[in-house]
Design brief:
Blueprint (H helix, E strand, L loop, with lengths): L16 E6 L3 H13 L5 E7 L11 H6 L13 H8 L1 E5 L1 E7 L4 E6 L5 E5 L2 E4 L3 E3 L12 E3 L3 H14 L3 E5 L3 H12 L3 E5 L11 H14 L2 E3 L4 E6 L5 E6 L2 E4 L2 E4 L3 E3 L2 H5 L17 E3 L2 E3 L6 E2 L6 E2 L4 H15 L13 E5 L2 E7 L2 H7 L3 E9 L10 E9 L5 E8 L7 H9 L4 H5 L15 H11 L1
Parallel strand pairs: 1-2, 1-7, 2-3, 7-19, 9-16, 10-11, 10-16, 11-12
Antiparallel strand pairs: 4-5, 5-6, 8-17, 13-14, 14-15, 18-19, 20-21, 22-23, 23-26, 24-25, 25-26
The chain binds flavin-adenine dinucleotide (FAD).
Length: 465
């Protein structure tokens, strides 16, 4: 182990510490970059291991790569391995997999993906940022040609290539979470007939039923067939091995291409095998500094985080959390002090022109958490009714009956709707009541909102309820 660590203010270090980062995307490289901001290369040696072919990439952009709104994979990469090396003196080892962690010896075993060559790497600080694994249904036929995951940039590029070169006519998307609906949108825009097959009664299960129904209706109006309450039971291939149809509990759906958008689970296997604690959701347990234990840190999709309203630990796979948590870990690794304040479950997406936002707890989550709440739904417009482009917007608020404190908000509406959820997220963060929100000084001009924004109108109505 290294000894005393110097700091920029404290003169030269006695020994250079070694940080090993496992996972070269949002959480891992945010941590590495932040640690480097705080400590020079003669204070901290940073080695990052990435088994794939890219660092700091935007998986969030995959649907738009498939849809052709983004032309190349390169546009989805915010920093390449050579940029990390030259600008930040971070030794990024690509196509290098961490195969095990020995916490007693403070060593990581590594394997070069292509050559199979193995080695060990000692560390003083370890950052685990292995992300999440896509869920795959346990059904026959997943190996048929034309069945694609949608987790990596390779997946995205392969789907795009297949859509452009093989010219499939019918797509089946399995799963109706935000990745499923985004993939359905872009495949439809590419001219395919699209069917979304769900096990749930509605798409976007994190919404209340009345709001999910609005999304489902919007998808149907766009021409997407939505098959609900129908778990997939198998995928059938033609004699040439190419996918032919998807069979679900309520029927069979012809398909030339199948996209698996069934969600993810934390990839915590390495940490678990090393003896680190894993929570009920399957993510590594970290404290508010993102520490698993002394000198071992973790962040992003492989971890659990705390919900600010319920105090419960949960896994939410979002890039926005992974980046922030990675930065927190990096600050602490670099000798600073930072804590992650938890999450509210804020998320947005869109399908066609319909935008969706949610924050806080849904009605079901409120019930599970034991709150007693009232709900308020208001239909309004995104702009002054007379201004061109005004679209309908439905806003739902859930507030605690006794105190009026906001507990959750959901928005479904036309262009300009979804980002309004951030006002409610800020209100939730600050434990505001619906009456507080109704009195907030929000902006107004006809191209942007009616005189009273839907955010205000709904809060006002809720405060009177
Ligand atoms: C299609 C799609 C759309 C999305 N859209 C959004 C969005 O709109 N908004 C949002 O907030 N989030 C979105 N996300 C989620 C977001 O991309 C993830 O939450 C984020 O990438 C998590 O970052 P991470 O660093 O924790 O994990 P990852 O990005 O999964 O990175 C983990 C890295 O670790 C590597 N790795 C794993 N194990 C090892 C090992 N043993 N050795 C070496 N390397 C290893 C992996 O190859 C991977 O590169 C989307 C995801 C997808 C797939």
């Amino acid at each position: 182990m290294s000894s005393a660590r110097g700091s920029k203010a404290g003169g030269r270090p006695v020994t250079v510490e070694r940080l090993v980062v496992i996972g070269g995307d949002a959480a891992g490289m945010s941590a590495a970059s932040q640690a480097r901001r705080l400590l020079d290369p003669d204070e901290l040696e940073i080695t990052a291991l990435e088994r794939g072919g890219w660092t700091s990439y935007s998986a969030c952009g995959i649907p738009y790569l498939v849809g052709g709104l983004v032309d190349t994979v390169d546009e989805l990469i915010s920093r390449t391995p050579s940029e990390f090396r030259s600008r930040q003196h971070i030794d990024v080892r690509m196509r290098t997999e961490a195969t095990s962690i020995d916490l007693d010896r403070a060593e990581v075993s590594i394997r070069r993906v292509e050559s199979g060559e193995e080695a060990t790497l000692g560390f003083d600080q370890l950052m685990i940022a292995t992300g999440a694994r896509p869920l795959r249904p346990d059904v026959p036929g997943l190996d048929a040609t034309g069945v694609y995951g949608v987790a990596t940039l390779d997946d995205g590029w392969n789907i795009r290539r297949a859509v452009v070169e093989d010219k499939p006519r019918r797509a089946v998307v399995l799963g109706g979470g935000y990745i499923g609906v985004e993939m359905a949108e872009v495949l439809l825009e590419r001219g395919l007939d699209v069917t979304v097959v769900l096990a749930d009664p509605l798409p976007l299960a994190l919404l209340d039923e009345d709001m999910g129904e609005r999304v489902c209706a919007a998808m149907t109006r766009m021409g997407i067939e939505v098959v609900t309450c129908s778990p997939v039971t198998g995928i059938e291939a033609a004699s040439d091995g190419g996918v032919r149809r998807v069979v679900s509990e309520t029927g069979a759906h012809d398909a030339d291409i199948v996209v698996l958008g069934l969600g993810v689970k934390p990839d915590a296997d390495l940490g678990r095998a090393a003896g680190l604690a894993v929570g009920d959701s399957g993510g590594l347990i970290v404290d508010e500094r993102q520490a698993c234990r002394d000198g071992v840190w973790a962040a992003g999709d492989c971890t659990e985080t705390v919900h600010r309203l319920t105090g419960k630990r949960l896994s939410i796979a979002l890039g926005t959390h992974a980046n922030k948590q990675g930065r927190i870990a990096g600050t602490n690794i670099g000798g600073g002090m930072a804590t992650f304040p938890g999450v509210l479950g804020t998320a947005i997406t869109k399908v066609g022109k319909t935008e969706i936002g949610r924050t806080g707890l849904s009605s079901r989550e409120i019930e599970q958490a034991g709150f007693v709440a009232d709900s308020t739904v208001v239909e309004s417009t995104t702009r002054a009714g007379y201004y061109p482009g005004a679209a309908s917007i439905a806003t739902k608020l859930l507030h605690e009956r006794d105190t009026g404190r906001l507990l959750g908000a959901q928005i479904v509406g036309g262009p300009g709707s979804a980002k309004r959820i951030d006002v409610y997220a800020a209100a939730l963060w600050n434990e505001m009541t619906v009456a507080d929100i109704a009195g907030m000084d929000l902006s107004y001009a006809p191209p942007f909102s009616p005189t009273l924004d839907p955010v205000t109108i709904t809060a006002r109505k809720a405060a009177r309820a």
